[in-house]
Amino acid sequence: MPDSFISKIKDLLKHVFPPPTKSFMREIDMLNSRLSEIDRAIANKAGSIHDDIALLRQEQAKIKKSVDDLRGDLQRIERIQKDCVAKIDREAADNKRKLQKLAYRENRLLQDKRFIEQSVFGQVPNYIEVGLELTNYCGYNCVFCPREQMTRPKGVMSEEDIRLVASRLGVQASKKMVVWTDGMGEVLLLDDFFDKIRQIRQCMPNCMPIVVSTLGYEKDDAFWDEFLRVGIKRIQVSIYGYDDETYKLLHGADRLQLVRKNLDTLIEKNEALGGPIEIVVGVEDFGQAFFEQRGLDYARQTELRERFEGGLKDHPSVRVIRRTLHNRGQAFHFAAPNEGVKKCFIDPYPMRENKLYVTWDLNVIPCPMVFNNEIVLGNLREQSLEEIYTSKTYLDFIRHLRTNQLQDYPSCRNCSE
Q1: Are strands 318-323 and 355-358 parallel, antiparallel or unpaired?
Q2: Residue 198 to residue 205: CA distance in whole angstroms
Q3: Which of 338, 415, 350, 410 lies closest to 108 in space, CA to CA?
Q4: How many CB atoms lie within 10 A of CB 356?
């Protein structure tokens, strides 16, 4: 394009768009100034808003802290409330226990009052059982029996002594009661065993004689025939160990096969007669430690015991019971002593007060666990039952037993019942 043409175009544009006037430029300057003012105002406003936001955020943080504080206070209040409820529950439980103790003490005081009243008037317990130690001779040496620790004299209760015991019982001898022929000996050693049973039946006509035996003695059929006719109501046999080796180790006698033979004969003859006596077989429940301490396989012994028990289940006249280890007074420490105040003599049922235990030489003892006559309450050859049960010896014993002051009675202190 020629330069002359371009020049003409420029001249034409100058006429169409003349240069701005001074007033126009002033107006532009004013607008620019106003725009700057607006920018400054916006900047100032933005700063103010930023400050407001900062203040609002501070307020928000304060409110959040207050909420957190309130939530913490609420949690503390809930904990305090929970602690108060738990404390009230504990106090209520304590009060309940205290009330129970007060009721128990009140009951004990009433028992003591009745006991003292009976003692003052020379009344003896209303017996439901009598234990007669016909002998303390035995051919066994059982590891769980303290008989080998016994230092008291050995002997046999005579028929005359049986009559004397019955005479001391007075009218009680004619009532229905259980008579145990137990103690620290074996009654099957007695040649006059049946005569003594007949004497018991004659002197105590309504009694139910119970025989405790190992069955570990050679007896013929005639013996077992008479055994079933003489009036015995129950025989209690303890069999611990179900193979020859274990039986010998635990009982100190290699007689398991003889015991099994006698038991089978007795069961067979008893069932043939319709079961006139109950046969109770005690089996061990001594625990794993007892067997392992003696080098025995506990699992194997348990299996043999269960097999033995299973063989007795089909006999209606036979009852099997599990026996646990007992400290036997102060003889052993198989179990932890019962250190509470509730001793078997008086609580929860006064069974020792309802049982009369008499040794072969007519000593009256609290229970058969006093195997060495560590506690003798009296002797029926020299005293009546009234004299024994009102004596200082008996009253002191009961008083110490009921207050659990057993320092002078180690057999009771170590008792595991």
Answers
A1: unpaired
A2: 10
A3: 350
A4: 25
Residue 176 CA to residue 209 CA, distance in Å, equals: 11
DSSP letter at 20 equals P
120 pLDDT band, cuts 50/70/90, is very low
Please tell me which residue, 39 or 409, carries the higher pLDDT value: 409
- ∠ CA 361-365-367, nearest 5°, is 125
CA nearest to 280, candidates 201, 415, 207, 182: 182
Closest CA to 125 of 163, 182, 175, 164: 175
Measured between alpha carbons, how far is residue 25 from residues 7, 22, 28, 33, 34 in Å? 27, 5, 5, 12, 14
> For helices 256-272 and 221-229, what crossing angle results, to 10°?
50
Cα 221 to Cα 261: distance, rounded to the nearest angstrom:
11
Q: What is the pLDDT of residues 29-77, one digit of tens each?
A: 787 787 788 878 787 877 778 887 888 788 888 888 877 888 888 888 8
94-103, 161-170, 233-242, 363-372: the lowest-pLDDT one: 94-103
- Locate 254 and state its tokens: 């290699």
> pTM for the whole thing?
0.70
Q: Is 226 left (phi over 0), alpha (psi -120 to 50) or beta?
A: alpha
Bond prior to 348 in cis (omega within 30° of 0):
yes
Q: Smallest Cα–Cα separation from 232: which of 273, 287, 260? A: 273
Beta-bridge partner residues of 320: 281
**Nearest residue to 396 via CA among 73, 2, 119:** 119
| Among 350, 389, 360, 337, CA closest to 131 | 360
Q: Which two tokens stand for residue 412?
A: 């009771």
Q: Which residue has the higher pLDDT, 319 or 16?
A: 319
Q: Taking the CB of residue 81, how many other CB atoms lie within 10 A of it?
A: 10
